[in-house]
Amino acid sequence: MPWSPSSTRGFVTTHERGSVTPLLEIDDLTITYRSARGEIPAVRGISFGLQPGDSLGLAGESGCGKSTVAAAVLRLLPRGTQVSGRIMLDGEDVLKMSFGTLRVVRWAGASIVFQGAMHSLNPVQRVARQIAEPIVLHEHISASAAEERAVELMTQVGLPTWRARSYPHQLSGGQRQRVMIAMALACSPQLIIADEATTALDVMIQAQVLALIKRLVAERDIALVMISHDLSVLADTCDQLAVMYAGKLVEHGPSHEVFGNAQHPYAQALSAAFPIVGDPDERRNPQGLAGDPPDPAALPTGCSFHPRCPVAMDECTSTTVELRAVRHDWQAACLRVEAEPTQPPAATPSALGVAAGPDARERDARAQERDAGSQERGAGDLRVRATSEDDT
Ligand SMILES: Nc1ncnc2c1ncn2[C@@H]1O[C@H](COP(=O)(O)OP(=O)(O)OP(=O)(O)O)[C@@H](O)[C@H]1O
Fold it and tell me: Fewest CB within 10 angstroms: 96, 113, 206, 387, which?
């Protein structure tokens, strides 16, 4: 079994054994909280898969279900929450794992870096000791050997070794977030979930921590799920972007396409709200999105986005639309998207009829310019902030 707790490292992965099974495969995941207000359908039938080394940015407004997905991957949801579908981690169903296996999988298979390290760290324990704890637990080595490893990890995440004996309150916010990343890496997981891991940091420190995550993920061939409100940060850090709205995926595809040429009106609005360096129009005129996301306990009929959608049609009020292929690697859940899987890429919003009128034409022209640019430059040039560790 891949997650046998008895092997030296904790497990032998299917990838180490040469399997091509996706590392993470989420299939029709549906999560409903039970609360005093009744049932809250937080996640509604989402699916995606990741191979080692893949990175997926999960975006969407507050309350759309991003953290619920993250918590489900490590079965950290409150007791009583209804979960259906499948979450396969390295070929094993997380939802059916025994607690013994789950203990190994947490840290050694997948780990989560949350926002606000101060609340996640023990205030009265030195940081190296905290990083060493999961190593002792999972690898059954002595505390001093584990602390040596912890100090090595601290160096890898750019913390000076003398900080090993510091307490969390003696570190800056960025340093604490680095400690959390070192902890997440401690047992060499195959998957890291970063849930708003850089949101509370100032722009310079955020850039450093993002660069660090990118470097470590690339060096170690780790799969990354990164959750953020900030689509531009996700587009800069991840290869793929998935946009959630009211518990559903409304668009999923290569980052430069979803950020630069979104097909779903919600994903368009979200990406238009963030500036792109080198695009003065977007910088001068960042657009907001009117209205609020729906109450998950009282979702609108049809497409949940239709009450806020600038291009909604009558049908949208009654027809539920699932993801449609825009291209073989790109999907959007909008009735206006004409699925043309055999056509070459670079369908533009107006070509798909997603947005009509002068604004849409302007936007479309910008999207085409960006598209041409992105083909030359690649997705990395969508960055809006300096992300080189050396620069900051
Ligand atoms: N323990 C819980 N009990 C009941 N409802 C919950 C619980 N946790 C989250 N919810 C609800 O589930 C929905 C999804 O919440 P979730 O935290 O996953 O969203 P999110 O996209 O991560 O939001 P944010 O960006 O604000 O963290 C929200 O409507 C939220 O109020």
Answer: 96
Listed by start position, the domains of the chain span 24-229, 243-382
Do 376 and 370 meet the contact criterion of CB atoms below 8 Å apart? no
Residue carrying the six token digits 């598209």? 371
- The answer to whether residues 95 and 31 touch, using CB atoms and an 8 Å cutoff, is no
The alpha carbon of 23 and the centre of ligand 1 are apart by a number of angstroms equal to: 26
Helix (H, G, I), strand (E, B) or coil at 41: strand
- Give the model confidence (pLDDT) of 166-183 as tens digits: 999 999 888 898 898 889
- Closest atom of ligand 1 relative to the 295 alpha carbon: 29
Tens digits of per-residue pLDDT, 73-111? 999 999 999 999 999 999 999 999 999 899 888 888 999
Mean of pLDDT values over 208-223: 86
Q: Is 293 in the pocket of ligand 1 (CB under 6 A)?
A: no
Average pLDDT, stretch 51-77? 94
Ligand 1: atom nearest CA of 247 is: 14
Three-class DSSP category at 281:
helix
- 152: tokens are 């090595």
By C-alpha distance, which of 189, 192, 316, 299 is closest to 264? 316
Residue 49 main-chain phi, psi, to 5 deg: -135, 150
Its ipTM equals 0.98
Ligand 1 lined by 40 (C-beta under 6 Å): yes
Higher pLDDT, 116 or 151: 151
Task: For ligand 1, pick from 40, 58, 233 the residue to mutate: most ligand atoms within 8 Å of CB.
Answer: 40
Minimal-distance CA residue to ligand 1 atom 12: 42
Nearest CA to ligand 1 atom 6: 33
Superfamily of domain 24-229: P-loop containing nucleotide triphosphate hydrolases (3.40.50.300)
Q: Judge if the beta carbon of residue 168 lies within 6 A of ligand 1.
A: no
